[in-house]
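Subject: design request, 100 residues
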């Protein structure tokens, strides 16, 4: 019998404890090592911030309007306007706000 405090996961008879524990440890390490990149204090542009992030990092964008075309390169950054909603605006090449 498995004690109630231990999770036992199996898939087609394969013990999944090691892969699950490895995944959880990697996730915890990434969260602990997460950084906040301030635009423009740490990086001059939002794109430069995205290009230099790691998993779990946050990009904090200062008040203003930024004329940039953003490529996320399969990354999932957390973009936050420093002063809340509508304080940091990204204007794409078509002249429309693509991020508020």
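Subject: RE: design request

Done. Sequence follows.
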């Amino acid at each position: 019998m498995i004690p109630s405090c231990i999770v036992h996961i199996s898939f087609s008879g394969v013990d999944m404890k090691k892969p699950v524990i490895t995944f959880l440890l990697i996730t915890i390490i990434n969260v602990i090592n997460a950084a906040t990149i301030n635009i423009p204090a740490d990086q001059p542009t939002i794109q430069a911030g995205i290009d230099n992030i790691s998993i779990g990092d946050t990009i904090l964008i200062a008040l203003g309007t930024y004329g940039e075309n953003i490529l996320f390169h399969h990354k999932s950054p957390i973009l936050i306007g420093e002063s809340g909603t509508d304080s940091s605006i990204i204007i794409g090449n078509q002249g429309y706000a693509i991020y508020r």
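Helices lie at 17-32, 46-51.
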